[in-house]
Write a structure and sequence with these properties.
This protein folds into three domains: about 45 residues, no CATH class; about 100 residues; about 220 residues, Bira Bifunctional Protein, Domain 2 (BirA Bifunctional Protein, domain 2). A hairpin with a 2-residue loop joins strand 11 and strand 12. It is an alpha+beta fold and about 400 residues long. This is Phenylalanine--tRNA ligase alpha subunit. Keywords: Aminoacyl-tRNA synthetase, ATP-binding, Cytoplasm, Ligase, Magnesium, Metal-binding, Nucleotide-binding, Protein biosynthesis. It is found in: Cytoplasm.
């Protein structure tokens, strides 16, 4: 057992005591390893020795045990409060000053952070108590700094309001941005409105169609070029992205017979269609509107009258003329291409014809009793002519400078 007797005059802190103890212990004779052990440190109180701390000595080094650590942490707590008091924010303190103060008190090299390392030297109960004490101090400091920041920001704002020109509340507000309809949508709405005014209903159908509805039911043979991969988007062997809205007519006729609601039938079928094609006047996706009128006494003359009336009202030109050129479509017989007079010439506008008896046969309508006509128009083509657009792709580029012209 080794005994040390250290005499001090005046009061010292536990850190100072720790430093003196280490130097005295290291001065003991013998090898460092021979001095390993536990030193019991007593202080005299009223002439009687009282245990103050245990110091653990190992491999020639010395660590303060829990009692000394607790004393050090408790001395730190009032020191933190003194630091806060000394650095209380004045009216002249800037945000940068506050950030620098926060770094000095709470940063990685601050006294508080260094002292937190002492917690590992405490037993669990002491660690809980002293840890709570330090966290409370840390939270108090952060709250004071944040409050001072808020006050400083408010002070800066008040100063700016006093020196900068005031807001003129009589100035007109900024224009509110409002959306608008796409020119293709505007065209579709106009087409539907005009046909609805002469008794046509609007019908819709799926954009993914079976081979039967897109081709077979419309009398398109297996060897027809439209069935080729270079013209049609195939999803699988039996499903395609519809290449026209004519399948809607087949669905509608089947449903009408099932519900005993026709013929007569009078519909238009607007919607998106898909073909493998892309240039200034063609797009892989575009809009089409198909028309169908089925009744007992329908003739090609009815078709001509409906188409000419629609085009004249759509373009608001009573002098607009329409001509029909013989053509071929598998689902109509006879078939024709429709041209209209435009800028001194003729411009192709769509296809039409009388519904083929085979199409009626696929849906169960008696072709001996009923006849009908069908026509198809490209919606983008109508929009290009109505608005004077020379490139179809402008409708799909979503350039707001272009689209804002139509609203």
């Amino acid at each position: 057992m080794k005994y040390l007797k250290i005499r001090f005059s005046g009061d010292i802190t536990s850190q100072e005591f720790h430093s003196y103890f280490i130097r005295a212990w290291d001065a003991l004779p013998g090898e460092a390893s021979a001095r390993d052990g536990v030193a019991k440190v007593y202080v005299l109180s009223n002439g009687s020795p009282t245990l103050n701390s245990n110091y653990v000595v190992k491999n020639g080094g010395c660590d303060a045990a829990s009692d000394a650590a607790v004393q050090s942490l408790r001395e730190l707590h009032p020191n933190l409060n003194e630091t806060i008091t000394e650095h209380k924010v004045s009216d002249k303190t800037t945000i940068n000053d506050l950030d620098a103060f926060k770094a000095s008190v709470l940063g990685k090299k601050s006294e508080l952070t260094e002292s937190l390392k002492l917690l590992s030297k405490l037993d669990p109960e002491q660690r809980r108590v002293e840890g709570a004490r330090l966290n409370s101090s840390r939270q108090e400091i952060e709250k004071d700094i944040n409050d001072d920041k808020a006050r400083q920001l408010n002070a800066e704002l008040s100063a700016r309001l006093k020196t900068e020109p005031l807001l003129d509340v009589t100035l007109p507000a900024r224009a509110r941005g409002e959306g608008g309809l796409h020119p293709v949508t505007l065209t579709l709405q106009r087409v539907e409105q005009l046909f609805h005014s002469i008794g046509f209903e609007v019908a819709e159908g799926p954009e993914i169609e079976t081979d039967f509805y897109n081709f077979t039911a419309l009398n398109i043979p297996d060897d027809h070029p439209a069935r080729a991969m270079h013209d049609t988007f195939y999803i699988d062997e039996q499903h395609v992205l519809r290449t026209h809205t004519s399948p809607v007519q087949v669905h509608y006729m089947q449903q009408a017979l099932k519900n005993n609601s026709g013929p007569p039938l009078k519909i238009i079928a607007p919607g998106r269609v898909y073909r493998v094609d892309s240039d200034a006047t063609h797009s892989p996706m575009f809009h089409q509107v198909e028309g169908l009128w089925v009744d007992e006494n329908i003739s090609f003359a009815n078709l001509k009258g409906v188409v000419q009336d629609f085009l004249q009202r759509f373009f608001e030109r009573d002098d607009l003329q329409v001509r029909f050129r013989p053509s071929f479509f598998p689902f109509t017989e006879p078939s024709a291409e429709m041209d209209m007079s435009w800028n001194g010439g003729w411009l192709e506008i769509g296809g039409c014809g009388m519904v083929h008896p085979e199409v009626f046969g696929h849906v169960g309508i008696d072709s001996e009793k009923y006849r009908g006509f069908a026509f198809g128009l490209g919606v983008e083509r109508l929009a290009m002519l109505r608005y004077g657009v020379n490139d179809l792709r402008l409708f799909f580029n979503n350039d707001l400078r272009f689209l804002k012209q139509f609203n």
